[in-house]
Amino acid sequence: MNWAILEEHLLELIRRTSTDLPGDVERVLRRQRRREQPASAARWAMDMVLENIRLARQHAAPLCQDTGTLLFYCRLPVNVDPARFEKAARRAVTDATRLGILRENTVETLTGRSCSSNVGAGLPVFHFEAGNDSFLDIRLIMKGGGSENAGSQYSLPEARLKAGRDLDGVRRCVLDALVKIQGSGCAPGVLGVCVGGDRATGMEFAKRQFLRELDDASALPVLAKLERRLFREGQALRIGPMGFGGASTLLGVKLGTLCRLPASYFVSISYMCWAMRRRGIVLAPQGGIRKWLYGD
Length: 296
Ligand code: SF4
Hints:
By secondary structure, this protein is an alpha+beta fold.
């Protein structure tokens, strides 16, 4: 692996992720805009979002002032050292911050002092897995703090919601979470949901749902059906863009499931704002670009 070339590719991956929203997200935003009444606050909000996207792309400027948490999902060949990869990625994040591609947006928790480079304890976040082929598959999500605040977790059964340990119980939790969000976290947004797992793996797997393109469906028919139903019922709440009221509360609902212990039944819900920054790159063993993911 040529680490200098890898760092250059990672810097470009960060630039694209920060400044250029993926085509699937923009298409759904445009579709939702058409559903809002002309001259309504909701239509105005959607116009502002789309203008924001256009300007960020035109000027190669960050899509939002909130850089968000950088989440790297990396499938590496067994002969690529994850620790060395992490070092290269941290340098790329530092460079991206210095160049203004990322705003300084990471602070030490206890002092509130800026980490200045967006690199610090626990940040950025890396998820590694060993791949079966010789290519590196690297995906990056930037997840804003406002949307992160909107996440929640339920432990079923939940008497308040009359939610039992079944998919109807899951449905009740997801709708309850959406009602509580009330458009904060910059709606319209995407719900990533994990049914099962433990408290930590459930939240992680819920976030991992954001790697899926918005128009896809779960491979499990029963979850695909619930995704469609929750999307429909979520839109019917009419919370609308930024909570202004309107047809566009959601851009998508993505459900996944993990095994659980008999004693536990968690429903973990992560929320992603309209600024769903996600890009990916596949690299050949020597560092050449094989393809970009999540294109236009
Ligand atoms: S929630 Fe999303 S759109 Fe809103 S400020 Fe944070 S990153 Fe930006």
